[in-house]
Design goal:
279 residues; alpha/beta; 4-stranded parallel sheet
């Protein structure tokens, strides 16, 4: 089986370029060994160029391991899926993980998310794509700051903005691979890991007791709703042990558990290929 792994373009990997490349390269190695095949690593920007020839592979059994997020490459991958090829994560999944879309899906399906307003300020987040710069996620302490935040987004040509109340409590980062049992939880403010530094507003964790199994169920439910088999996200646990999912993303860097994640993704691929073969 011809297999490709698409490396995420740097513009979609703010402060995470090396980590994103490491998890995809490791996954490609594990999958290649399991399938006894060579996995070609492809740059997203190369795949988006007109000189990448797809016609010759249209009728071949092909697997794509994709961290791509550009609209042009997502269109390309949708075409591949229409030819019966398998893509992890699919173009549909990446589009469904756009913040305004996934927030609505979670809210409509009983998955705990923050309200749009609260007494501790709120966050304004770019809703059309994952955050690319520090300005794509803004904390607003009051109504005047909210108004100014919206105006700043408008001046940048961004109309799709999600507003979420700030929840004081323990910030949690979770990673999962759907339907494999792989689910990991970490406290980023305890180990200093940060993309833009916003995590520090929640401070050092108190390690409030919460229902980890239920968080996993809610994360897996979101994965099913969006068809995002390889996923990650963030949640906040308040002092009463209630959790709220504040972010859900397609194929994160798994920076704290790369090796285990690569094995889990390999398991996912083998199971899905086996299902397709035995249909």
């Amino acid at each position: 089986m011809r297999t490709f792994a698409i490396l995420r373009d740097e513009v979609f990997s703010p402060n995470s370029v090396d980590a994103d490349r490491e998890i995809l390269s490791l996954t490609a190695q594990r999958v290649g060994e399991a399938l006894h095949t060579k996995v070609d690593l492809v740059e997203e920007k190369h795949l988006a160029s007109d000189d990448f020839m797809a016609d010759e592979m249209d009728n071949q059994p092909t697997l794509w391991l994709s961290m791509a997020r550009s609209n042009k490459v997502l269109r390309f991958l949708r075409e591949r899926e229409e030819h019966g090829q398998w893509v992890v994560n699919s173009a549909h999944a990446v589009e469904a993980c756009r913040r305004s879309v996934v927030n609505r899906l979670m809210g409509d399906n009983g998955i705990p998310v923050p309200p749009s307003s609260g007494t501790y300020g709120c966050w304004l987040k770019r809703g059309d794509i994952a955050a690319q710069t520090i300005d794509d996620v803004v904390f607003a302490e009051n109504e005047e700051a909210v108004k100014n935040g919206f105006e700043a987004f408008r001046k940048r040509g961004i109309q799709d903005v999600v507003v979420s109340a700030h929840i004081p409590g323990d910030l949690i980062k979770f990673y999962g691979v759907a339907d494999t049992g792989f689910f990991k939880v970490y406290y980023p403010t305890a180990d200093g890991g940060s993309k833009f530094g916003h995590e520090q507003r929640n401070g050092k964790p108190h390690y409030y007791t919460f229902d980890r199994d239920n968080l996993m169920r809610m994360a897996e439910k979101t994965a099913m709703l969006t068809r995002t088999w390889v996923y990650g996200g963030d949640a906040v646990v308040d002092s009463d042990g209630r959790f709220y999912i504040i972010d859900f993303n397609d194929w994160p860097s798994f920076s704290r558990c790369k090796s285990e994640a690569a094995d889990a993704i390999k398991t996912l691929v083998l199971r899905q290929l086996d299902k397709n073969i035995t249909k």
